[in-house]
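Tokens for chain A. Residues wanted.
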């Protein structure tokens, strides 16, 4: 990640953020603050999320455009449909949250020298999980954890954070099950934060930040 050439607002102890529209061209809004449950929940409800390296201040982002998936627009390829129909993976929810988040932290990703899921982040989201907000979906092959994902459930929105695969298509299977379950519980959109070809292949696409903010303000 790189900081934009834009004035950065520094957060103090007050539980508040600048308006998301004040973000710089790359989406960087503010630095500092903490990862308390209260601040994290306020961030998500405001269209903001943390993303930073282990050797930096906490950085808060609200990019424009925003990558989102509307559950009804989920794309399941013919090959993935066959994998799901065959039962290649068993999908569970909230059975191994600590293992899922640590696997997401340790998985190697092309073009990324390290991980943004630091020990500080792991502790913060584990606490959100304890409080009932952060959830995990696990893809199993037998008794082996083959892949999964985690995110934050907030009313009519699911804020996706990260996913991993140890077996080809495992994270896709978990993602598809997550979207279908979230739709069943009345979720209006999946916040995917930033573009990746993987998410685009599953039906996610960019929306303007103003449109995204308008949608989430009616989702809680």
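Reply:
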């Amino acid at each position: 990640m790189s900081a934009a050439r834009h004035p950065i607002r520094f957060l103090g102890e007050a539980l508040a953020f600048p308006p998301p529209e004040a973000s710089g061209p790359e989406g960087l809004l503010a630095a500092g603050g903490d990862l308390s449950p209260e601040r994290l929940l306020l961030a998500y409800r405001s269209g903001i999320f943390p993303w930073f390296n282990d050797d930096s201040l906490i950085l808060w982002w609200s990019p424009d455009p925003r990558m989102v998936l509307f559950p009804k627009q989920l794309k399941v390829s013919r090959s993935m449909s066959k994998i799901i129909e065959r039962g290649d993976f068993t999908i569970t929810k909230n059975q191994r949250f600590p293992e899922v988040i640590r696997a997401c932290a340790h998985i190697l990703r092309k073009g990324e020298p390290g991980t943004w899921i630091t020990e500080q982040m792991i502790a913060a989201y584990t606490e959100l999980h304890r409080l009932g907000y952060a959830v995990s979906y696990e893809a199993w092959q037998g008794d082996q954890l083959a892949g999964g994902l985690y995110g934050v459930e907030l009313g009519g929105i699911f804020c996706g954070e990260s996913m991993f695969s140890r077996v080809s298509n495992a994270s896709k299977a978990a993602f598809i099950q997550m979207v279908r379950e979230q739709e069943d519980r009345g979720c209006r959109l999946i916040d995917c934060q930033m573009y990746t070809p993987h998410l685009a292949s599953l039906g996610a696409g960019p929306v303007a930040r103003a449109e995204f903010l308008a949608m989430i303000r009616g989702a809680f």
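The chain has two domains: 9-63, 67-217. The domain at 67-217 is CATH 3.40.630.70 (Aminopeptidase).
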